[in-house]
Predict the structure of Lipase-like C-terminal domain-containing protein.
Amino acid sequence: MWRWLRAWLLGAAELLVSAVVHLGYGFYIFAAAVVADVSLSLVEGLTGWGEGGVTKGSVVEGEDEAAVLDGAVPPIVLVHGIFGFGKGRLGGLSYFAGAEKKDDRVLVPDLGSLTSVHDRARELFYYLKGGQVDYGEEHSRECGHSRFGRTYERGHYPIWDEEHPAHLVGHSAGAQAIRLLQQMLHDKAFEGHDDTSENWVLSVTSLSGALNGSTRAYLDGMRPQDGRSLRPVCLLQICRIGSILYHWMDLPWLKRYYDFGFDHLGMSRRLVGARGLANLLLSRAAGDPFATGDWILPDLSIQGAARINARARTFPGTFYFSYVSRRTATVGGVTVPSGVLRIHPLLFVRVLQIHLIGGGRRDEDWEDNDGALNTFSMTHPRIPEEHPSLLVHNDSDCHPLRPGIWFVPCRFFFHSRFPWQFGYRLLRFPLLGWCKSMYYKIVEADHMTFVINRQRGGVQFDLIYDSIFQNCRKHVFRTAPPTTLPNQS
């Protein structure tokens, strides 16, 4: 009895701390955006400069941006992860911490922050190509929500096709969204667009990507038995209730700053009233994404990632890159947080906890993590089948790059003398023959190092993004590299 009570008290304390930290950080970011926007509006009002605050264009339709993207140089599309946001949200705060300024032709779409990978992939297509978002007749019917979403009068890259491809870069859950979009292009899954193909995508880059799911989903409240339903009391239940209330209130000025992306699910008080709110909170409403599993967390479970990977292929004509992060170390055979003072407050407790459950069991391969995702999950798609991959130890050894293989750049990795610590692997590269055995460590960074706050990332921030942009501009092309590169004219 005492053991059960102690476990319950520890669980309640952990939930309370996690909820306070997550909600506190969310309010901090939101308040900072409001204060910055109000300050800007006051300055503009006093000086007569400008026509309004940043939030005026919160849902960017991209008239000016699209005009710049003439296809001469493929754009780089940065896709945010869970709880993320695109250009124009949160008072102009940059999810990618200003990395988009490193190149003249970069797009940062605003997708649903909690919607499913399927819905986000569909939204990304219409964001680029233009038109009204169509979630698909079959999918919409199965999940019980509206088939259509927001309308882009003009796409951000309307000439997008096989002759004018794009580079797709996804952080966290964004990595799976861009992979599924490429598969949809191959499947010609967009009604009225019969000419799509996987070759519309020139390269796919995963930055701390959830390629095989995360065991954190179970820590936060997902049931490991099915990877879809939630425990009655957990952090994800707080998230569920908060997002329902947020969308039910349906306050336009509030949603201009931030939007979970559930408009097509009909949660507004104007549509469902007080009774509808009660049904939503009790998971009795038709089309409730938390009941049907049509939201992001089931896709971040290992089962959900396996379902996506079973469908999304690694195509032979596309270049694939994966950048992997870790904030743990092995001390005396025990996985513990590393660089404690540099771990983001949102992630500190989870860095220590994730190793306890491994891949749904005590599996040491899944213990290393960055506080949100398992390091083992980020390298390349592994489940249910392993996709071709290569750890790149020396960039000069693999240029020109070869499509159809997941490259895991090693320039930021630090060698370890101890094979039992992490990462002993015998690698093979088809053009070079057998490579020597390597002992390596993944780049020491938590899941938030490369987003929101550039100062936290330090030198690593610039190294990672410079590498990503350099791959897209100098090493990835189908015929010949462009004669003039952005920022070099």
